[in-house]
Design a protein that fits this description.
five-stranded mixed β-barrel, alpha+beta, two-stranded antiparallel sheet, globular, about 220 residues
Length: about 220
């Protein structure tokens, strides 16, 4: 994510990169998914997010998971995120698209309530989210902690199909693990483990996703 000191400076560069890479991604075929993880061998996860709406982040036994095509992941925490999707972007050409073909920008807590996120402009840029409040937005002091960009690693083809069906505006529940990914040709790709690190590098969550739900309006109200 972009912090306040860099948003305006990098917006033009990000917008140009967005247009160029978005065109390339739309024209390219989808990369065959490399992952086929045995989820039965993974540690248990919370069923839902925390009662205050924030993501549930739980300690798990450290273990390495082979992802395929020379990539593996080390589990950092169990993780459950619930919120409203504000950006969506597929990746077909970057160094990790074979294991992480989708980013979702998701807001949680107060920002996930109907009408709240509409006061903020969101744009997906390569592996990040740019955002800017509108002139009449009424926001809490810590609202930026409720904006997340998530690099999603589907555990298998079935999870990938569920993720690819998600659209902007959906309210979703994503269950999985925050991870650090290693592989040929990339530096260690480490997930954020904090909600208040709104930085360009290291501020996004990298999630090995084992479960996906689109939450219907009647379930939100329950």
């Amino acid at each position: 994510m972009f912090d306040d000191g860099t948003k305006n400076t990098l917006f033009a560069v990000g917008a140009a990169a967005f247009l160029m890479t978005a065109t390339l991604d739309r024209a390219a075929p989808r990369t065959d998914l490399a992952t086929a993880v045995d989820t039965d061998s993974l540690p248990p996860l919370p069923l839902s997010a925390s009662t205050d709406g924030s993501p549930a982040q739980t300690r798990v036994a450290s273990m390495r998971v082979e992802l395929g095509q020379g990539f593996d992941a080390r589990l950092l925490y169990g993780y459950v995120l619930e919120g409203r999707v504000v950006t969506r972007r597929e990746f077909r050409n970057d160094a990790t698209s074979a294991i992480s073909p989708l980013d979702l920008g998701i807001v949680w807590g107060d920002l996930a309530e109907p009408g709240r996120a509409e006061a903020i402009e969101f744009r997906a840029v390569p592996r990040a989210v740019w955002y800017r409040p509108g002139p009449h937005a009424v926001l809490t002091e810590d609202w930026e902690a409720q904006v997340t960009n998530n690099h999603l690693i589907p555990a298998d083809a079935a999870v990938n199909e569920q993720l690819m069906a998600i659209e902007v505006g959906n309210h979703v529940r994503i269950r999985g693990y925050l991870v650090v990914v290693t592989g040929d040709g990339i530096a260690p790709w480490r997930s954020s483990t904090r909600r208040d690190d709104n930085t360009i590098i290291g501020g996004c969550e990298i999630i090995l996703v084992t479960g996906v739900e689109i939450i219907q309006p009647d379930e939100e109200a329950a």
